[in-house]
Specification:
Elements (H helix, E strand, L loop, with lengths): L3 E4 L2 E4 L4 E7 L8 E7 L6 E6 L6 E3 L7 E6 L4 E6 L8 E8 L15 E2 L3 E6 L1
Parallel strand pairs: 2-11
Antiparallel strand pairs: 1-3, 3-8, 4-5, 4-9, 5-6, 7-8, 9-10, 9-11
């Protein structure tokens, strides 16, 4: 069972940037496909981005496409979410998640992910 710990959240002005990190405890990190989700107060959790085991394939929600980039470093057991040109509507708690399901790589469905971090808060001010 892998443990995930997010970091890098904070308060940023609209138009600014943040880089979220997710550290995984699992030694064989490459067997997990990874995703980022977010949840704003009063709203359902939504998909943000996903990356395949090797990092060769990625998928983004339309709302963040062109602004966010998901990357991973299997040698360091890390996955990152680079967020640029942040908007107020990006304000949310951000969670990284992991799945070992072979058919679920790049899935935007949160129930396909088996392991979750505790989240890191991102607040974008105008």
């Amino acid at each position: 069972q892998v443990q995930l710990v997010e970091s890098g959240g904070g308060l940023v002005q609209a138009g600014g940037s943040l880089r979220l990190s997710c550290a995984a405890s699992e030694g064989d990190f490459s067997r997990y496909a990874m995703g980022w989700f977010r949840q704003a107060p009063g709203k359902e959790r939504e998909f943000v981005a996903a990356i395949s085991w090797s990092g060769g394939m990625t998928k983004y929600a339309d709302s963040v496409k062109g602004r966010f980039t998901i990357e991973r470093d299997n040698g360091k057991n890390m996955v990152y979410l680079e967020m640029n040109n942040l908007k107020r509507e990006d304000t949310a708690a951000y969670y990284c998640a992991a799945t070992t399901r072979l058919y679920a790589a790049l899935t935007p469905k949160d129930y396909e992910y088996d392991f979750w971090g505790q989240g890191t808060q991102v607040t974008v001010s105008s």
